[in-house]
Amino acid sequence: MNPLSPAVQELQKLLGARSVLWQPDDLRVYSYDGSNNMATPDIVVLPETTQQISEIIKIARRYGMAIVPRGSGTGLCGAITPIAGGIMIAFARMNKILEIDLENRTALVEPGVINLDVSTALAPYKYFYAPDPSSQAACSIGGNVANNSGGPHCLLYGVTANHVLGLEVVLEAGEILWLGGKAPDEQGYDLVAAFIGSEGTLGIITKILVRIMPLPEATRTLLAIFNTIEQASRTVSGVIGAGVIPAAIEMIDGTTIRAVEAAYNIGLPLDADAVLLIEVDGPKAGIDELQQMLADFCVEYGARQVRIAKNEQERADLWKARKTALGALGRLAPNYYIQDGVVPRSKLPYILQRQDEIAKKYNVTIANVLHAGDGNLHPNILFDAREPGALERVKEIGGEILKLCVAVGGTISGEHGVGLEKLDYMPLLFEKKDLDAQAKLRDAIAPTRILNPCKMLPQGSKCGEVARSKLSTAIAGNTDVWI
Amino acid sequence: MTDLNTFTIAGLKPQTIYEPRDANELAQILAQCNAEKCAVIPWGGGTLQHLGNTPARYDAVLQTRNLNQVVEYAFDDLTITVGAGMTLANIERVLGENGQFLPIDVPHPTRATIGGVLAAGANGTLRLRYGPARDYMLGNKFATVDGHIIKAGSKVVKNVAGYELHKVQVGALGTLGIMVEATFKVFPKPPAELSMWLAFDALQNACAAVPKIWSLTTPPLAIELLDASTARQVLPNTIGNWFVAARFGGSKATMAATRDLVAHVADETGARSTDALADTNALWRAIADLPATLRETSPDALCVRMSIPPQTLANALRVAFDAAHAQKLAPPRIFAHAALASIYAAVNGDDAALEAFVSKLRAQVHELHGHVVVERAPSTLRKNINAWDDTGAALKLMQSIKRKFDPNNILNPGRFVGGI
Ligand SMILES: Cc1cc2nc3c(=O)[nH]c(=O)nc-3n(C[C@H](O)[C@H](O)[C@H](O)COP(=O)(O)OP(=O)(O)OC[C@H]3O[C@@H](n4cnc5c(N)ncnc54)[C@H](O)[C@@H]3O)c2cc1C
User: Fold this and answer.
1) Atom of ligand 1 nearest to the CA of A75
2) Does A271 lie in the same domain as A195?
3) With an 8 Å Cβ cutoff, are B251 and A290 in contact?
4) Among the atoms of ligand 1, which is closest to the Cα of residue A169?
């Protein structure tokens, strides 16, 4: 793009020059998310209102340019990678909490609000917003909704979808629509459910009505230390199988522990093969019994030690180990490739063992950080991207792990999304007719595919280029010609 | 069961009853109906067929009751996959053997099928704690009009691969496809329970108790509000005008402490009596049945469900009484899921008064940011009253989805919102 391009000029007129980025240096920052995918948008805009977004879409349509919504860019599946170029809408300036309604237990927020900021704002009232991705200090609520993100405490509280009551969306024609609300049982098709997890392909989310909850009266955090990862994973399936649902059960393997220790020196045992971070919460009355029961469980399943956080500081330290885990992996290798498969919880011991075999076969190190209570694996395959062919190889390994997950009844993504990254694996889960049915939903809501094209559903490896060249025809109304 | 009268809807009878043996046969029949443009009403247990408008066309019934098997029960993973024609009671029995349950407590569990309940978007008292069914429904299979069986979602507790087509079918009243199978995350039964029954003289006090109970440090499983008529259906000798039933689950220690907390709320809000009830399974069953009891104890009553923001409970009830009063109708009989607020109200009267009641009620409930669904109307009134409230601008998207999945409009035509 150049400053004289008519699209840039129109956008500048709409938003002001400081809200339209078009110089290569400025755009570069917007070329990445948290994955290994990369592509540069033609223009980045930073709107402040829903109305502006509606106008931006109309401009994009006039120039046949794709629209890619971007939250904080922490996504791990290339869902914001603008492979067809176009206009990226960044929400950094739509970051206000508009309303906190304690009586109705809702908060109305703009999409750019950072996840953690919601709970921080609610803390004085002793309320919180439950979904807590490990990236919560950076990721946006809009991104969370678009990805239906999870987090450690989703074991008890459920994923983002369970906490979103209403959405304001801008459709691909620029129309602004409210879906859902504070009253239950919205009539008609559950469009809120359709938009959650739609990765920006159905509409631009401009306001989010989230459900908030009173903070639990008491919280107990345990760290169970195991000599083998198998003991740890058996503990997880044992606890769930016994019908005990803690607020969170996270697993960190030995490789990751050592990386975290090297970086932060939290005091984790360097010789352990795995630790489980278990949290229970609820009313004070009965919480100590629950804590004891879980501690006993861990010991019964072979934990060599169970530490219990004695105060808020110790609790924060234990969580620090989990929340900094991915960052700490940088100590071990220049790059990591994270996967996100899910297995039935009883299959955790099996899958971790098979994964170990795969690591040995390919001679790579895999560092594991799991939302173990939900059976959600996060194997991080370590590599050095400077080595020729290294990325391709780790992708192949990742694919092998995902195939195993599906083979035991699981799925290819528990929370990170499909984006570009998992497109090739969708056929592992779904037959063509299933994918066609999903495409019907998309085409009913966003037929021109101007919104985040080429994501979610496999549309051929050339999708990006095809989209670039065919968007204008599609928007003119002839949707059949397009891809 | 081949008596066509069983399948009468608003005076209309089908010509054909299909009772496919399995999902594949069901899909084939559906495709055949589509080819012949024959209007199909999917039929589970028939317990929720009073919902919606009069069908625009009605040629055939497609019964799902043979799809009544457990497809897969991974009890140690807390997930179950069942055929859509399985009754809630049978699911409860299977899960109960492992101390687990599915928190869908709606009327007539021995007849209501899981497919029907999902399609109707029905929810019971336990939704307060466990969320609506779409929150713990992990995936499903459904037959489409072109004869395919589509898989959506997954069988594991977390999945974000693909659009959530399975969730879009919850509450779609079978207008997009016919569910043949569904997978759920199930829940362990709490080790102990506590059921508190609070009696009040004044509605205002009963309503004041609701948010206080909801905010206790022990999160309640259910908080229900009953008037004297519905209360006596479930607890015949209870004395008072308004009642709050609150249910809790957790450890024995937690329950013991909670009992005191609720008693304190009762004191604060001027309850005339507070009781901790024992052996409450039958009581909660009877409470869950109340939406049906309200309909069935007065076959010509108009029954509405008002969905409102929680904070407006007292206002919404006031609005309902005023609307009835304005038409010189006797006060509505009331039962409400009080915290996540939906109010079931039943009124009797002549058609003109009832029609005026509904339009007045709707206008005022809209001001509270809620909506009113007419769940059942006397047959003479049914054609004049829209079962559904206004769906606003979102209707266009809904119609567009409908066209994609059912272009010939053969699935439950005309019964759903906006003429879908
Ligand atoms: C260290 C680390 C830890 C993580 N831990 C977790 C975890 O525990 N659980 C988890 O689920 N994920 C986790 N993630 C992944 C990531 O943080 C989440 O996917 C998060 O929700 C992305 O939010 P974001 O604001 O960065 O969105 P982005 O990455 O910017 O965008 C994500 C998607 O949302 C769309 N989008 C953004 N805003 C809007 C909008 N307003 N309207 C429509 N579409 C929009 C984008 O187009 C894209 O498809 C982690 C990532 C990192 C780097």
Assistant:
1) 29
2) no
3) yes
4) 42
- Which atom belonging to ligand 1 lies closest to the Cα atom of A94? 41
Tokens (6 digits) for A453: 């094209």
Nearest to A256 by CA among A240, A273, A243: A273
Q: Which domain holds residue A146?
A: 97-214
Chain B residue with minimum CA distance to A458: B162
Q: Which residues of B touch A376 (CB under 8 A)?
A: 158
- Which of A392, A423, A454 is the last residue in one of the domains? A423
8 A C-beta contact, residue A249 and residue A373: yes
Give the ipTM.
0.98
CB contact under 8 A, A188 and B211: no
The CA distance from A395 to A390, in Å, is: 9
Choose among A208, A213, A183: nearest CA to A122: A213
CATH number at residue A369: 3.30.70.2740
Distance, in Å, from the CA atom of A223 to the CA atom of A248, rounded to the nearest integer, reads 12
Ramachandran assignment for A200, one of left (phi > 0), alpha (psi -120 to 50 degrees), beta (any other): left
* DSSP label at residue A162: G
CB B17, CB B61: distance < 8 Å: yes
Binding-face residues of A in 46-85 toward B, CB within 8 A: none
Give tens-digit pLDDT for B343-385.
999 999 999 999 999 999 999 999 999 999 999 999 899 989 9
Cβ contact A282–B148 (<8 Å): no
What number of C-beta contacts closer than 8 Å exist between A and B? 253
Instruction: With beta carbons less than 8 A apart as the criterion, state whether B45 and B118 touch.
Output: no
Q: Is the pTM of this model over 0.95?
A: yes
Tell me the pLDDT tens digit for each residue of B115-163.
999 999 999 999 999 999 999 999 999 999 999 999 999 999 999 999 9
In chain B, pLDDT over 70 holds for what percent of residues?
A: 100
- Indicate the SS3 state at residue B200: strand
Which residues are CB-contacts of B378 (< 8 A; sequence separation ≥ 6)?
Answer: B300, B301, B302, B351, B354
Q: What is the CATH number of the domain that holds A162?
A: 3.30.465.10
Contact A259, A325 (CB under 8 A): yes
Go through the domains of chain B in sequence order and give each one's CATH number. 1-189+391-420 (3.30.465.10), 192-288 (3.30.70.2190), 291-382 (3.30.70.2740)
Q: Say if residues B343 and B364 touch (Cβ distance below 8 Å).
A: no
CA–CA separation, B212 vs B215, rounded Å?
5
Residue type, B375: E
Distance of CA A343 to the CA centre of its chain: 18
Is residue A153 domain-shared with residue A185, that is, in the same domain?
A: yes
| Residue B256, amino acid | A
Q: Which residues pair with B273 in a beta bridge?
A: B199
Strand-pair partners of B284 = none
Count Cα atoms within 13 angstroms, Cβ side, for B335.
Answer: 21
CA of A322 to the centre of ligand 1 (A): 18
**How would you list the strands of the sheet with B222-227, edge to edge?**
B273-277, B192-200, B242-250, B222-227, B333-337, B342-347, B302-307, B371-376
* A182 at B interface, C-beta within 8 A: yes
Query: Taking a C-beta distance cutoff of 8 angstroms, is the pair A241, A231 a contact?
Result: no
Beta bridge pairs of residue B223: B246
- DSSP summary character for residue A32: B
SS (H, E, C) B372-419: EEEEECCHHHHCCCCCCCCCHHHHHHHHHHHHHHCCCCCECCCCCHHH
Q: Which of residues A167, A186, A214 is at a domain's end?
A: A214
Cα–Cα–Cα angle for A250, A254, A256, rounded to 5 degrees: 70
Closest by Cα among A60, A11, A82 to A172: A60
β-pair type (B16-18, A379-383): unpaired
Q: Show Cβ contacts of residue B332 under 8 Å, excluding neighbours closer than 6 positions.
A: B320, B321, B324, B345, B346, B347
Report residue A370 as tokens: 């799991």
The number of folded domains in chain A is: 3
